[in-house]
UniProtKB/TrEMBL annotation:
<dbReference type="InterPro" id="IPR052337">
    <property type="entry name" value="SAT4-like"/>
</dbReference>
<feature type="transmembrane region" description="Helical">
    <location>
        <begin position="39"/>
        <end position="62"/>
    </location>
</feature>
<feature type="transmembrane region" description="Helical">
    <location>
        <begin position="82"/>
        <end position="106"/>
    </location>
</feature>
<keyword id="KW-1133">Transmembrane helix</keyword>
<dbReference type="InterPro" id="IPR049326">
    <property type="entry name" value="Rhodopsin_dom_fungi"/>
</dbReference>
<feature type="transmembrane region" description="Helical">
    <location>
        <begin position="239"/>
        <end position="258"/>
    </location>
</feature>
<feature type="domain" description="Rhodopsin">
    <location>
        <begin position="23"/>
        <end position="264"/>
    </location>
</feature>
<dbReference type="GO" id="GO:0016020">
    <property type="term" value="C:membrane"/>
</dbReference>
<feature type="transmembrane region" description="Helical">
    <location>
        <begin position="167"/>
        <end position="187"/>
    </location>
</feature>
<feature type="transmembrane region" description="Helical">
    <location>
        <begin position="199"/>
        <end position="219"/>
    </location>
</feature>
<keyword id="KW-0812">Transmembrane</keyword>
<keyword id="KW-0472">Membrane</keyword>
<feature type="region of interest" description="Disordered">
    <location>
        <begin position="272"/>
        <end position="294"/>
    </location>
</feature>
<protein>
    <recommendedName>
        <fullName>Rhodopsin domain-containing protein</fullName>
    </recommendedName>
</protein>
<comment type="similarity">
    <text>Belongs to the SAT4 family.</text>
</comment>
<dbReference type="Pfam" id="PF20684">
    <property type="entry name" value="Fung_rhodopsin"/>
</dbReference>
<feature type="transmembrane region" description="Helical">
    <location>
        <begin position="118"/>
        <end position="138"/>
    </location>
</feature>
Amino acid sequence: DRSGDVWIVAILFTTLCWISVGLRVWVRAGIIRNFGLDDWLMVAAMCFFQAYLSCQIGGVIYGTGRHHWDNTPQNVVKALRFWWFCELFYILASTTLKISVGVFLLRIAANKRHRLLIRLLIAGCAVFGVTYFFNALFECKPFHIYWTQNPGAKGCVRSDIVVRSMLAASGINAIADWTFGILPIFMVWPLKIPTRAKLWVAAILALAAIGSTATFIRIPYLFTLADTDDFLWSTTDVSIWSTVEPGIGITAGSLATLRPLLQKMIQKFGSGTTNPNSAKDPEASNKSRSQQFR
């Protein structure tokens, strides 16, 4: 019985994400008063992720992480229904998260090529996310076959096709994450600030794309989706890493915006002096790209 593993990870990221997103809202709306589209998108991603987590916890209650033969048929049906909803909310959360990260970087980027690349990535993530969502939604026709029989029953897309589509989706997600993670290096390198400061700023901005690490770990487990006879047990690792991936992304993406809060704390509790303008958010001003990262 591995349901406890799924439960622990779900509770962990529920806590981490609510804290990090809550702090982000406080910083953007309360401290710098610059609550933008990227913040609204991150809040939306958090809402979708919370819906996902709620469905996953519901699935754990009824059988996610357990063998089918150790459960009642009625509970298996309920758990599979929760699994189906989890897949939909996972797609919505992941897609909204990536668009939020892209908009966040777009607010900072000054180079036209960088801005064009970010816009193309945002558009690509949006189009792919919508396509992926409807493919998952209509994986079985009618919908209820997914949980009243199993995901491999007649009327559902063949499990090998589902696995291949999931692998393609994970690959595209990883490419988007790595592009968003590497791009900040090129964005800050031309700035006239010390090299150490450039690396530090690039690392902070790249936090928003750190979820790609979980994407790569999740990929090998996607092959277990083909085991439709003992689906709830076989896909336990998929369930776990499907939580970790957007969970890390939402947490890290929100932490990347907390610099003004840290500077305010240093100002209040530190012994040194702090530039009063340093509490401004990196992207709050477009007047001087080099000064905003000091």
